[in-house]
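Exam revision sheet. Question 4 asks you to relate a sequence to its structure. Input first:
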Amino acid sequence: MCLAKGLTGGYMPLAATLTSQWIFDAFLGSYAERKTFFHGHSYTANPLGSAVALANLETFDREKTLLRVAGRSIEFEQMLQSFWKNSHVGDVRRVGLIAGIELVRDWKTRKRYAWEERMGGRVCEEAKKHGVLTRPIGNVVVVMPPLCITAGQLEKICGVLQRSMRTVCGS
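Answer key, structure tokens:
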């Protein structure tokens, strides 16, 4: 498994490759045996990035970040339920503190908006006017708040997005 951004919170270049012992052993040997893993990634062994990653992991441990995020995720799930009342929401998907709200022309038929209408982008542009920055992937509005977010901040994001969807898509 390759991972990167989460190690440093996305602020410094650092990546890691995780593997099973079995795969690691297949590359274990002397240079002369040519068993070494010659390929790597550009974010390997950055000393400053490594220091940031260690500080980030220490902060996660000290502040019980994962425990707090688990509780906040449950609150987020409850807040997202209100989006189902909008007739232009075709689906609401969530994993932890990441959500995707799919916009459709009509939730009953799940008829999609035409790509050219840029509904996801237009909703995000409207939300930006009210201090909420998010991004679209087509007609899906992606909500990916920082792990340190408060319940009040999540409520603001959800409220602004709901108003923005009504403004752009109608009720």
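Marking note for examiners. Residues 85 and 171 are 9 Å apart (CA to CA).
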